[in-house]
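pasting for ref
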Amino acid sequence: AADRFSRRTILVTADLLRAVIVLGFLLVDGPDRAWLLYALTAAQFMVSAFFEPARAALVPSVVPADDLLTANVLSSVTWSAMLSLGAAVGGLVAALLGAPAALVIDALSFVISAVLISRLAAPPRPTLHTHAGGWTDLLAG
């Protein structure tokens, strides 16, 4: 999808969808709603499957070629650090304020990310002149 649609649009849409999905976890209030927990988790992974490739593909568009290696390393290190920090802070917020507050803050972080990404100045993508269609594209790789 990241080679056919605006990467920025994919990123913003994915972040907004992830915010809604995270808020959906607030509806999981007992064992009888375990199915919802699984469905929301699967949805979160599916949306992330669009976000991550689009994010990686956008980096060369916003970073000069000479700085691309450094940008990719910083992106990887930052992602790993934020994953660890987010888990720690999320646990602390959940312990102090409760799980619902942690989920709302997590959803807000996705909204903030969407706003920041939407303001990102990225050069327009070149237009693809050939478009065979879904199955043809899939079979062609």
